[in-house]
Design a protein that fits this description.
GO molecular function, one term: ionotropic glutamate receptor binding
CATH architecture of one domain: Roll
Radius of gyration: 27 Å
Number of helices: 4
Helix content: 25-40%
Structural class: alpha+beta
Distance between the termini: 54 Å
CATH superfamily of one domain: Phosphatidylinositol 3-kinase Catalytic Subunit, Chain A, domain 1
Largest sheet: 5 strands, mixed
Number of strands: 5
Strand order of the largest sheet: 2-1-5-3-4
Length: 152
């Protein structure tokens, strides 16, 4: 979203100058300052660590673009890398989705440690008992021959 500013100091709704509005009451105006979040990012492939300061609520893709701009051409295949929130004692680590906001992951923290690593899909080991495997194989063969005999 673009923010537009007037070239002159006039409030467009009331046509009062900004200076006269400031003189009315400085004590009644409360401004929320944007929250600054400090990201400590570890790049394991380069054995480097960098710190980025993000003002307000940022989209993960913008943070990744800024990080890639600062790193330049040091990384091979950098588009397949992503920001990873490491494991904590209470929860499992995960990759941050690029279209989401940073606030959806951090829950009010001001200093966050992230890793910039290749995106890999980990599949947990799957165990199937030999009896169940043979039963499923027999059923698969029967249905395959049934479909072939029908011409499907």
């Amino acid at each position: 979203m673009k923010k537009f500013t007037l070239s002159y100091l006039v409030d467009s709704d009331s046509n009062k100058s900004v200076n006269s509005l400031a003189n009315i009451s400085n004590s009644n105006i409360e401004m929320d300052l944007p929250k600054i979040t400090e990201l400590h990012i570890i790049i394991k492939d380069l054995n480097k660590q960098t710190t980025l300061k993000v003002i307000g609520d940022a989209i993960i893709l913008d943070i990744k673009k800024k990080l890639l701009f600062t790193l330049g051409d040091l990384l091979n295949d950098s588009q397949n890398m992503g920001l990873h929130l490491p494991d904590e004692p209470s929860r499992k680590g995960k990759f941050l989705e690029e279209e989401r906001l940073l606030s959806e992951y951090i829950s009010g923290k001001t200093i966050i440690s992230l890793e910039f690593i290749y995106k890999r899909r980990t599949i947990p080991p799957f165990y199937m008992s030999p009896t169940l495997l043979s039963k499923l194989s027999k059923n698969f063969i029967k249905t395959f021959f049934r479909y072939v005999s029908r011409g499907e």
